[in-house]
Amino acid sequence: MFATVGFAAASMSAIARKANVPKASVLYYFGSKEALYRGVLLNLIDLWRTATDVISEDADPAHSLAAYIRAKVEYSRLHPLASKIYANEVLHGAPHLRDYFVGELRRRVKDKARIIQGWVDSGKIRPIDPMHLFFVIWASTQTYADFEPLLAALLGRETLQSGDYDVASDTIVALVLHGVAMPAATAEASEVGNGGAARPKAEGMPQPVRRANPPGANRKPSRRRAKAP
């Protein structure tokens, strides 16, 4: 209900009917519409928070970032409505989550950002702002939930298919890992979450073209000196 009509228009009676439970039961367990709404939001955020557990000081950066990205895309596939509720809350100024954002969530993200900064300081990845790296990953992965109808239409489908999410994961992982200039482990790490098997190339994906050198490109310059007139 919150995803389809928004917080203001959703009533506890309609929510109870949708869930096929008495309204009194909903009120008993949640107390109010605000508490239920906040619970839905925090449940999704908790899933996202758990996904960051792979980012640790002793972890390999390539494998950690690849696993985190794949988990975020999978949450977009499994919980698109919850993601849309969250996006709508943020677009309206986050009135129900502002205290959580500036408190617990900020502390959690900054803790993980310090780990990524440690990777930078130790030379494991190129210098990059950890907080903005998180922002880029969130934007690119949550797009597949929040803008699913648009993406499906552009791909010529009614809805996104499982393979679309696989291609999305592969693409975002490749962009991020190459962007932070990972070492040779990049290619191997990009398969995290795929059982180690190589994914098939996406249909129509352009492949790099090796261009031939132009005529005379390998010709050595002449050492003959011109005669004086």
Helices and strands, with pairings:
Blueprint: H1 2-9, H2 12-19, H3 23-30, H4 33-51, H5 61-78, H6 80-91, H7 98-121, H8 130-146, H9 148-154, H10 162-179, H11 186-189
Helix pairs in contact: 1-6, 2-3, 5-8, 5-10, 6-8, 8-10
Instruction: Specify the structural class.
Output: mainly alpha
Uncertain spans, ≥5 residues at pLDDT below 50? Answer: 196-215
Strand coverage percent:
under 5%
Q: What is the count of β-strands?
A: 0
The percent range for helix content is 55-70%
- Alpha-carbon Rg, integer: 25 Å
- Largest sheet report: none
- How many DSSP H or I helices? 11
Order of helices and strands: HHHHHHHHHHH
Q: Measure the end-to-end span.
A: 91 Å
What does the overall shape look like? globular
Average pLDDT value?
A: 82
